[in-house]
Amino acid sequence: MDIGIALPTMCRGYDRAATVEWCRLADQGPVSSISCGERMAFHNPEMWTTLAAAAAVTERVRIFANVSVLPAHPVALVAKQSATLDVLSDGRFTLGVGVGGRADDYRSLASGFGRRHDRLDRAVAELRALWAGEPPADGADPIGPSCVQPGGPPVLAGALGPKSLARAAQWADGVVAFSVGGVPGEIEWSADAARRAWAGADREPPRLVSGCFYALGVAEPDAVLRDFTAEYLGFLGADNAAGAAASMKTFDAEALHRTLDAAEAAGLDEFILVPSSVGLGVLEETLELIGSR
Fold first, then answer.
1. E-assigned strands of the chain?
2. CB 275 within 8 A of CB 9
3. Interacting residues of 32 by C-beta distance below 8 A, sequence separation 6+
4. Which residues pair with 68 in a beta bridge?
5. What local confidence, expressed as pLDDT, does residue 29 receive?
6. CA-CA to 27 of 20 to 30 Å: which in 53, 86, 253, 280?
């Protein structure tokens, strides 16, 4: 099983130096991918710009958009952004897409929140048509640049429930799930559910990716992880966010090894570690842990 890391873009204090240092060290180490996610009404930097910087300062690791809230955006724009990243990374780009769950992000983009799953299905079909060279409108030129990867980058679905997985099984190359606390039972359940959905669609087993929040290489890692989790999940309401934060256990190497062992036993292809602090010590200790496996 491959192990990737997310850039600490959702952490306070993320800056240019963190981008360069995390990308360069990860590219030299035993890491399979660098990723970051998308939020609008939050303090994080913009996802596409950040990933473009990551692509420019790395040579080996895959660059993973985890994930783009595709129904909130013009599809032609995402097609162009994805193709550009595929070129900048020389064919190392993977696109995760999902519907998201934060109405504020949709409102920030002047986009409607309704019928998101239907819109996602249609958007992925349009995305692939644009990558294949179909013009975005009658009489218009095709959208470039041409992707390096034939047919365009792999598309993973950020889907969890049976209905969303059944829809994703019609068009996705795989699934990117997430277990906030790295809970073995959650990881196994989501992997099994994805395989069932792909079997139900009479398709070969999907690429399976998941991830979790964690803390290493900082003082009081349990407090750092729980504070980060509570802030990130604040959109769920203070009580729900606090409850989730209190349950977090992935703040030492032993706990992380248990989570990674469970992910490997569940048959995942890749597991993404999402840090709760920007400190370089976090990355160094993370690379040491990955290298020990």
1. 2-6, 33-36, 62-69, 93-98, 155-157, 174-176, 207-214, 270-275
2. no
3. 2, 3, 4, 61, 62, 270
4. 97
5. 87
6. 253
